TrEMBL record:
This is Uncharacterized protein. It comes from Venustampulla echinocandica. One of its GO terms (cellular component) is plasma membrane. It is found in: Membrane. The keyword Transmembrane helix applies. It holds the Pfam family Gpr1_Fun34_YaaH. Belongs to the acetate uptake transporter (AceTr) (TC 2.A.96) family. GO terms for molecular function: acetate transmembrane transporter activity. Keywords: Membrane, Transmembrane, Transmembrane helix. The chain crosses the membrane at residues 69-88, 94-115, 122-145, 165-188, 195-215, 235-253. InterPro entries: AceTr, Gpr1/Fun34/SatP-like. It is a multi-pass membrane protein.
Length: 284
């Protein structure tokens, strides 16, 4: 990533004595910018997880990158969620950490989603919004005060309702629908990088596995349900690890820390994306 310095900037004494030796191009860490910073489409997709587009009055030069913030909320929630599904430390229920489904995940994700929308980052906006509503919906399912599980019991008993056929079959179908949507998003992540693509590949796999666990509860096969629950938790734990990795990569880049951590850029397999939609329509 570099800045090409104009003659005016040289007159103002911004450029050091190595300007001529470097051919007029300086690394971002060596230049005090008087103008906009030009970054490659590949680096842009690494930082924002969305193709680079030209926006009028580009807000990316004025506001901080919100993507790592949303990912942080996702990662913290995912680690907790998956660890409990695997039963670490004797954990058996998500009720005790229902707060992650309302605050830790959704608030950070929703805030990041709004910022991504304002900045014109379409794909990352979609991802943030999608996971925000997922955690919120799961939080509602895990909070007895909403009375959803209790509504499946003739006596209004939440525990009895949570073990009912109707409740578990409904949640299983819901997770399977999510699985199909996550697979759809996975197809689009093939335009970004390998790490991000793996996150969605494993997320949709985990969604089907956990959905299968609920389905087995509805059929009374509790042993298989427990095995599927742990398998789904383990798969989602890998999702959390990958999310943590890509968040660290993005934060390091934003903080100008030289860490050569690969993400497996996939954008070079696709046509250049830094063109306007109108130009794409003309080509068609």
């Amino acid at each position: 990533m570099s800045i090409r310095t104009s003659g005016d900037q040289r007159k103002n004494g911004v450029v050091d004595s190595n300007y001529e030796e470097s051919g007029g191009i300086h690394p971002i860490s060596q230049v005090k910018s008087l103008g906009g910073i030009s970054i490659s489409p590949e680096l842009f997709e690494k930082l924002y997880l969305t193709p680079k587009t030209n926006n009028v009055g580009d807000l990316r030069q004025r506001f901080a990158n919100p993507t790592p913030l949303g990912l942080m909320g996702f990662v913290i929630s995912s680690f907790t969620f998956s660890a409990i599904l695997m039963g670490w430390g004797g954990a058996t229920t998500l009720v005790g950490v229902a707060g992650i489904f309302y605050f830790t995940g959704p608030i950070l994700l929703l805030f990041a989603m709004i910022c991504e929308w304002i900045m014109g980052n379409f794909f990352s906006m979609m991802v943030m919004g999608m996971f925000a509503v997922f955690w919120l919906s799961f939080g509602v399912l895990q909070t007895p005060a909403w009375g959803i599980a209790a509504s499946y019991s003739a006596t209004g008993n939440a525990a009895e309702g949570a073990a009912s056929v109707g409740y578990n079959a409904a949640v299983a179908l819901y997770l399977m629908v999510w699985g199909f949507w996550l697979f759809t998003i996975f197809l689009f992540t093939l335009k970004t990088n390998t790490v991000f693509a793996l996150i969605f590949l494993l997320a949709f796999t985990s969604s089907f596995i956990i959905g299968g666990a609920y389905w087995k509860v509805s059929t009374g096969d509790f042993d298989m349900a427990l095995k599927l629950q742990k398998a789904g938790g383990a798969t989602f734990f890998v999702v959390a690890l990958l999310g943590y990795y890509i968040t660290v990569v993005m934060m390091a880049a934003e903080m100008r820390i030289t860490l050569k951590l690969p993400v497996g850029d996939l954008s070079h397999f696709w046509p250049k994306s830094d063109i306007e939609l109108a130009e794409m329509e003309k080509r068609d």
